[in-house]
Write a structure and sequence with these properties.
Largest sheet: none
Number of strands: 0
Structural class: mainly alpha
C-alpha cells in the first residue's frame, strides 16, 4: 500500500526528491532496479 501522497498520484520514479527520500521503499512504490538487472545478467 502506497502511503506517500506523491507516489500515490504518479509514482516514486517521477518524484523530484526520490534520490534523498529515505522512505521511498517503505511508504512509496519504489523497487530496486538492480535486482532485475543482476538476474538478467546471470542468464
Amino acid at each position: 500500500m502506497t502511503l506517500c501522497p506523491y507516489a500515490a498520484l504518479s509514482s516514486c520514479s517521477k518524484c523530484p526528491i526520490k534520490k534523498v527520500c529515505p522512505l521511498k521503499g517503505v511508504i512509496g512504490d519504489y523497487k530496486k532496479p538492480s535486482e532485475k538487472t543482476e538476474n538478467q545478467d546471470d542468464k
